[in-house]
C-alpha cells in the first residue's frame, strides 16, 4: 500500500473553534527533550527558575534516542583528526591529543552515563567520539531532570503559541485534548523551531542558492557482528577504510555496479559500548524537508528500504557480518530544517577562522560537515588545529519575537556554519546557555535579548561550562 499522496491542490477547510486546558504556568518552559532541551532545563533549574519541559515522545534524548544518532560526535579541538572509533578494534589509534571545548551539563551527564556503563569516554582510542547506549541514556536524563526539580510532560506536540501579558502561551496536542502552558520565557528546543515559527520569527531553510537542505538518515543497530574478523579484513585491505567515511571502495564499486541503490559513496558506522554491536549511519534520503509531513513519510519509507539493502549487502559481502542482523532502527534523523534569523548569524568564515565573540556562550571545534543535499559526496573542512570558535548569545535570539530563545540546531547561522554546530554536544551547550539566560531574564524582569552576556557567562562558568578564557571570569 503506497503512502497517502500529497493533495493535488491546496484546499483549506474551516475547523471549529475549541478551548484548551490550562495545564500550568511556569517561569521557563522548555519545548523539546533532546540534547538542547535537556541542557536548557538543567541550566534554567540550576539558575533558580521554575521549569517545565514538554516532549512530544514518551522519553527524553531526542535524536540520540528517538533517531539512534550515535555516537556523540567529537567536542574536542583535536590537533590531528581521529580516524576511527576503536571500540570496533578496526585500526591502530595513532592520533594526536585533543582538549574538550564543551563541559557543563554535558560533562555531568557523561560522568553519570559512563559510571553506569552506558558510555565509553572520549579519548584518542574512540576518535574523541562517545559511543553510548540509548536506553541507559534515557534513564540518566530522566534521573537528572528529576533531581533538578524539572517538571516533565510527555506525549505532547507543540502546535501553536500566542503572546500573553507576561510571556507566551504554548498550545500542545495531547491524548487528553489540547492543553496550554503559560511561561514567562519559552526556550524552543524542538530542532525544527516549531514554537518560534508559530510565533512569527523569521527563518531560513537550506542552501542560500537553492534552499536545499542536507539529506536525512535513518540510523540502525546491527548485532552479532564479529568485530575481530572485520578488523582483520580492514587491516588486510586498508584501501577499503577511509577515515571518518568508513567503508569506501567496496561501497563505491557496488553502487556503480547496481548492487546498492544508495545516493552516497561510503558506508559509515561506529562501535557502541557493546562489543558485538555496530551503529550504522549509512542511509541517505535527499530532496526532503522535515517540516513537510509528506516528505517525512517518504523519507521513512525510502530509508527503511535502504536499510534492508545495506543489511543484506554487509551480510553477503563484508567479513564479520555473516550472522549479524538489524536489532533496532530509529525514526528518520533530520540534519537541517529551519535556521532562525537571529541578532547575529554565524557564518562559515566564523567557523573556519575559529572566530571569537565577546558574548560567546559555547564553543565548537567540529568541522564543517556537509552531506551533499543532491546525492553522493560529503564536504569536510576543519577548524584550525587546536582552535575552536565561539557561539554568541545573540545567535540564540530570534528577531521580531520577545520572551523566546532558540537552542540546538535551529539557532542563527548559514547553511555552512550549521553543518558544524548541529552536533548534539554543542546543542546541549547552547541549550544550557539558553536556559541560564531565560532564568536570569525571569529573575531580573528583562527580555532575554536584554540580559547582559557577562551575566550569562558567569552563571555558565559556575555551572561548569567551558568558555574561552576571559569570558565570565
List its salient traits.
single chain, 473 residues, alpha/beta, FAD/NAD(P)-binding domain, 2 domains, seven-stranded mixed beta sheet, four-stranded antiparallel beta sheet, 11 helices, 17 strands
Overall description:
- There is one protein chain.
- The chain is α/β, with parallel strands linked by helices.
- The chain folds into two domains: 22-209 and 336-473, 3-Layer(bba) Sandwich (FAD/NAD(P)-binding domain), CATH 3.50.50; 220-329, no CATH class.
- 27% of the residues lie in helices and 18% in strands.
- It contains eleven helices and 17 strands.
- The protein has helices at 35-46, 105-115, 134-148, 194-198, 227-236, 249-256, 293-317, 348-352, 415-421, 424-444, 453-462, and strands at 21-31, 51-54, 151-153, 157-164, 167-173, 179-188, 203-205, 220-223, 268-271, 277-281, 325-329, 338-340, 360-364, 368-371, 378-381, 389-392, 404-406.
- Strands 1, 2, 3, 4, 5, 6 and 17 form a seven-stranded mixed β-sheet that branches.
- The protein is globular.
CATH topology of the largest domain: FAD/NAD(P)-binding domain
Query: Percentage of helical residues?
Result: 25-40%
Order of helices and strands: EHEHHEEEEHEEHHEEHEEHEEEEEHHH
User: Strand fraction band?
Assistant: 15-25%
Uncertain segments are 81-96
> What is the CATH top level name of the largest domain?
Alpha Beta
CATH superfamily of the largest domain: FAD/NAD(P)-binding domain
Number of separate strands: 17
Radius of gyration: 22 Å
Q: What general outline do the C-alpha atoms trace?
A: globular
Gap between N and C termini: 61 Å
Q: From the structure provided, what is the oligomeric state, counting identical versus distinct chains?
A: single chain
Major pleated sheet: 7 strands, mixed
- Structural class call reads alpha/beta
Mean pLDDT: 93
- Summed up, the helix count is 11
CATH architecture of the largest domain: 3-Layer(bba) Sandwich
Domain module count: 2
